[in-house]
Amino acid sequence: MAARLIRNIILTGFMGTGKSVVGKSLARQLKRRFIDTDTLIEQEAGISIAQIFETEGEPAFRKRERQAITWSCQEDDIVIATGGGAIMDAENARMLKESGIVICLTARPEVILQRLHNTSSRPLLQEPKPLEKIQKLIADRADAYAQADLSIDTSCLGPDAVVEAALTALSEKSYAAEKIA
């Protein structure tokens, strides 16, 4: 396989898998800028994601999310962390794939629930049985997540180990280390 120039590195996956923390660290190591699309949405809206869901609804949030992804994908040499459901939108998935290498971070549902002990900031988990909701959402998103170029299970890994696994996987996939640095 020939080496492929990496414009951007995109982290996707379910909430609580480490996209933001890993993305910041990966960007620092690669000397790239980091963009978290959820943070962009909150900055543009002037309110939190939870407030957007509450006051405008999920469709309005998804519209804002597509705008943030459109803008982010026009950039070069960045690391992008997306919201967990962003890749479910076919246009978002297309833009992200065209923009760079998509890495899906995964974790077991029980691990995700443990990591998200403060679920009040997670509108999709405002359920009496959040574990069941996590399992259902992961199942619903499985096909979209499977379209990623790489996948890393973060269940038993800290952020530094996930960054190392990402760098190793990129190198092993013949994405040429000198082209990602």
Could you characterize what this model shows?
It is a single chain. The longest helix is centred in the middle third of the chain and has 16 residues, at 58-73. It is globular and about 45 Å long. With 181 residues, the protein is an alpha/beta fold. Strands 2-3-1-4-5 form a five-stranded parallel sheet. It contains nine helices and five strands.
Summarize the structure.
The chain has 181 residues and is of the alpha/beta class.
Round the mean pLDDT to the nearest integer and report it: 88
State which percent range the strand residues make up.
5-15%
Which structural category fits the helices and strands?
A: alpha/beta
Distance between the first and last residues' Cα: 19 Å
Oligomer: single chain
- C-alpha geometry: globular
Q: What would you report as the Rg, rounded to the nearest angstrom?
A: 16 Å
Number of β-strand runs: 5
- Given as residue ranges, the uncertain stretches (5+ residues, pLDDT < 50) are 176-181
Order of helices and strands: EHEHHHEHEHHEHH
Q: Spatial order of the strands in the main sheet?
A: 2-3-1-4-5
**Helix count, DSSP H or I runs of 4 or more residues:** 9
Helix fraction, binned, reads: 40-55%
Query: Largest sheet, if any?
Result: 5 strands, parallel
Task: Jot down its keywords.
alpha/beta, 5 strands, single chain, five-stranded parallel beta sheet
